[in-house]
Design brief:
The termini are far apart. The chain has three domains: 33 residues, no CATH class; 103 residues, Carboxypeptidase-like, regulatory domain (Immunoglobulin-like, Sandwich), CATH 2.60.40; 92 residues, Cupredoxins -  blue copper proteins (Immunoglobulin-like). The strands form five sheets. It has a five-stranded mixed sheet, with no helix packed on it. Strands 1, 2, 15 and 18 form a four-stranded mixed sheet that branches. A hairpin with a 6-residue loop joins strand 9 and strand 10. By secondary structure, it is mostly beta strands. 14% of the residues lie in helices and 39% in strands.
């Protein structure tokens, strides 16, 4: 394709019909290449702790992603497809907005405080460990997410505040709000299929993880079964139960 396009550039000033033909050839080759990408389908089954089946929804979504596997058989989780991208998780009305944020690794996430009192955002989990300390209304702090993982976000002052940031080292991901999801324009190759859902058991997430081959004749990744567990109360950033702030506290 590059040879054809270079030849076309040579004839750009000549006005010959050959230029138009070659340009059409460049476009046809490009489209043919793009057509090799596939939309991969994944089917999701979710079961709650009480055994009842649930359907993923906007309030209880499921994140699905494909991590490319290289020639050495390993996935490169240090890839930074999102370098330079910025996102926000706002603190407002004693809530994180949005509750779930999926970002490519290399992204920067800001945590602006839009409440009329202090917050202390922290995460002690494997995705990204950080503690932003106390900061007041109208201010903001940012955190880079440079490796793949799931970060559970809390406020050290308000125990009911909670959110999740899933950072993925791939551009091929989807947030499913129904029983199936599609990952778009995935090039042919070998991938590790992964899934995450809030309150899912580690065992079911590990069982759902699998290696798949994507190609023109193989675009259905099959079904993934996810088991949920009863959520457990979290501790503060010191690993202790939350203390109760008196009524009228500025926090």
């Amino acid at each position: 394709m590059e040879h054809i396009c270079r030849t076309a550039n040579i004839y750009r000033q000549s006005g010959q019909v050959l230029f138009a033909v070659l340009v059409m050839g460049c476009g046809l080759v490009h489209r043919a290449s793009a057509q090799t990408d596939a939309d991969v389908s994944v089917h999701l089954t979710v079961k709650a702790a009480d055994g009842k089946s649930r359907v993923p929804s906007a309030n209880a979504p499921v994140v699905v992603w494909l991590s490319p596997i290289g020639a050495d058989g390993q996935t490169d989780l240090t890839v930074k497809p999102g370098t330079g991208k910025s996102f926000q998780m706002v603190q407002k009305d004693k809530m994180f907005q949005p509750h779930l944020l999926v970002v490519p690794t290399g992204s920067l996430v800001a945590f602006p405080n839009r409440d009329p009192f202090f917050h202390n955002v922290f995460s002690l989990f494997n995705g990204r460990r950080f503690d932003l300390g106390l900061y007041e209304t109208g201010t903001s702090h940012s955190v880079p997410f440079n490796r793949e993982g799931v970060s559970y976000i809390f406020c050290n002052i308000h125990p009911d505040m909670g959110a999740v940031i899933v950072s993925v080292a791939t551009p091929y991901f989807a947030v499913a709000t129904q029983s199936s999801a599609q990952l778009h324009q995935v090039p042919p190759g070998t991938y590790l299929l992964k899934v995450w859902a809030e309150d899912a058991t580690e065992a079911s997430l590990e069982k759902a993880t699998r290696r798949i081959q994507v190609g023109a004749e193989n675009t259905d990744a099959g079904a993934m079964d996810i088991m949920l567990q009863t959520p457990q109360p979290h501790t503060d950033k010191f690993g202790k139960p939350y203390s109760q702030h008196p009524e009228g506290s500025p926090y």
